[in-house]
Amino acid sequence: MHPAEIAQSYDAIAHRWLEPHLESNGIRQHEHALHFRSGGGAALDVGSGCNGRFIRLLESHGYIVEGLDISAQMIALAKARNPHVTFYHEDVCEWAPSRQYDFITAWDSIWHVPLAQSENVLRKLCRALAPGGVFIWTTAGLDASEEKRDSAMGPPVYYSVLGTPKTLEIIAAEDCVCRHLEYDQPPEKHLFLIAQKV
Fold first, then answer.
1. Could you tell me which residue ranges the Methyltransferase domain spans (predicted)?
2. What are the strands, taking DSSP E only, across the chain?
């Protein structure tokens, strides 16, 4: 699927990310990631959606947060809930960071990037980290690259992963150290990683 098609699918179901049961999703993992630096500075939420829970968490730790999402509806809902936050309605594949960030999160988002562009996006985000900056993101814990498309959420959605060995190879090449790797939703192969810029 083209990223624009992903945007249309998420536009159709954006309201679902306002449901109360999602308020705690990923919070424990982000709190763990926050321990790897003292806090404060610039932060970026990639695939920020409309919920705002990571924005609130990061702000409580002294960060000034920006959001990035390809879904116009997600951005509209997010702006209504967080009018003080700068949001970019852009495709992360095309977006060019204008600064470095002390903390980047891409929770359940960059696995929607076309497989052919996944490595470039991962490298771009690693390069957008300031020295000592922390990056947390999710992928599927597979040994090799894979892509799929399904309609489990209703509209069709595309997923791709580089595979764990390739992912670790890339972050090391970008002067980042893997601080944590965890399969956090067994028996699913949902994997989150925390990397830090040297």
1. 44-133
2. 41-46, 63-69, 86-89, 101-106, 129-140, 146-150, 157-161, 176-183, 190-197
| DSSP 8-state symbol, 37 | S
Structure tokens at 10: 């998420």
Burial readout 15-51 (b: 16 or more C-beta within 10 A, e: otherwise): eebeeeeeeeebeebbeebbebbeeebbbbbbbbbbb
Query: Do residues 57 and 108 lie in contact, with contact meaning Cβ atoms separated by under 8 Å?
Result: no
Say how many domains are in the chain: 1
Looking up residue 60, the CATH number of its domain turns out to be 3.40.50.150
Please enumerate in sequence order all residues whose Cβ is within 8 A of that of 73, keeping only pairs 6 or more positions apart, or say none: 10, 11, 12, 14, 50
Which residues lie closer than 8 Å to 11 by C-beta, 6 or more apart? 71, 72, 73, 74
Q: How confident is the model at residue 195 (pLDDT cuts 50, 70, 90)?
A: very high
Domain extent at residue 182: 3-197
- Helix 3-13 and helix 72-81, axial crossing angle in degrees, nearest 10: 50
